[in-house]
Amino acid sequence: MRWYLRYPLAYEHVSEMLKERGLAVDASCIWRWVQAYAAELKKRCRPHLKATNKSYRVDETYIKVKAQEKYLYRAVDSTGQTIDFLLTAKRDAAAAKRFFRRVFRSSNNPIPRVIHVDKNPAYPAAIRALKREGTLPRRVRLRQRKYLNNIIEQDHRVVKKRTWLAKGYGSFRNAWRTLEGIETVNMIRKGRVRWVARTMSGLKPASWRTCSVSLPRHFYPIQHCSALDLCSIKLRNETVCDNNTQGDPLQRAVQPRTSGVDLAESAAFQHAAIVTFAPTSTLHAYQRSWG
Asked: What are 180's strand-pairing partners?
């Protein structure tokens, strides 16, 4: 899932990459992972966002949903850090007002000193309404200078590269969940999420330990998430490996606790998976029925 959200890849591309690594995963399965866990990734990262500066750049770009144009409102600061985002059905003052309310509601986003926007007339109307309500202080300036929005115009490319490969989305809900994952992983890449490495190469190679385990047919392959620090895998209520034990992480061994049953030779465990341990990462095995 991280590959799909981080790089401009289609679901078929990720499926082929996993197949080269010995994992037979259908593209539709990867789509289900994104729909199920992208929102959870966003939820866990939100409380750990670093504060941005007070110079906002706000703009919107279009996303195809059922062959119709929907609008993704996005805001970044003067250094390019993503502040917030919102997918709306319309491009009007009400949508802009809803987006600004979402931005100012977060405790991680300081009240801006200045907001830079383009010539869209919806922005001044939304800002005036928010000032009348008292949501936004009257000292906040609104500047409509198109060239000052070059930062966010360039930042749109990160999202557009990935949505272009999707060739549109089947529903508004699916589009929003996918965009939540893409934007959250982009925040991690920019370094806005505390205590999470920007890239997997940001961790020291010596701190990694790789081993192989086997998963039953009714388990999805392991999803890598670098937002927590507990590393464990459970199969049928049995702890297969636990990285939260005492001692040096490099000296920990994976010792299956299965009462003498060899998982590798058991007919019930067919799908092999590679597990990589890191001090700042989490591996989760999600039990799902294949139906």
From this structure: none
pTM: 0.69
Task: Return mean pLDDT, the chain.
Answer: 76
Number of domains into which the chain is organized: 2
* pLDDT at 279 (0 to 100): 35
Distance (Å, rounded) from C-alpha 85 to C-alpha 262? 49
Rounded Cα distance between 175 and 37, Å, is: 14
Helices and strands counted in the chain (H then E): 7, 11
Q: Is the dihedral of CA 254, 258, 261, 265 positive or negative?
A: negative
Residue 12 maps to a domain:
no
If you average pLDDT over residues 177-205, what whole number do you get?
Answer: 82
Evaluate whether 83 touches 52 at the Cβ level (below 8 Å). yes
In a domain, 138, yes or no: yes
Q: In the structure, what pLDDT confidence band is assigned to residue 271 with cuts at 50, 70 and 90?
A: very low
SS (HEC) of 98-156: HHHHHHHHCCCCCCCCEEEECCCCHHHHHHHHHHHHCCCCCCCEEEECHHHHHHHHHHH
Domain boundary among 165, 192, 210: 165
Q: Is the pLDDT of residue 265 over 70?
A: no
Q: Which domain holds residue 267?
A: 201-284
Cβ-based burial of 56 (10 A; exposed 0-12, middle 13-18, buried ≥19): buried
Quick one: average pLDDT of 241-256? 37
Instruction: Work out the angle at residue 93's Cα, subtended by the Cα atoms of residues 102 and 142, and round it to the nearest 5 degrees.
Output: 75
**Strands 114-117 and 141-144, bridge-based pairing:** parallel
Spatial separation of the C-alpha atoms in residues 287 and 284, rounded to whole Å: 10
Please give the DSSP secondary-structure letter assigned to residue 181: H
Does the pLDDT value for residue 214 go beyond 80? no
Rounded Cα distance, 192 and 44, in Å: 13
d(CA 28, CA 34): 10
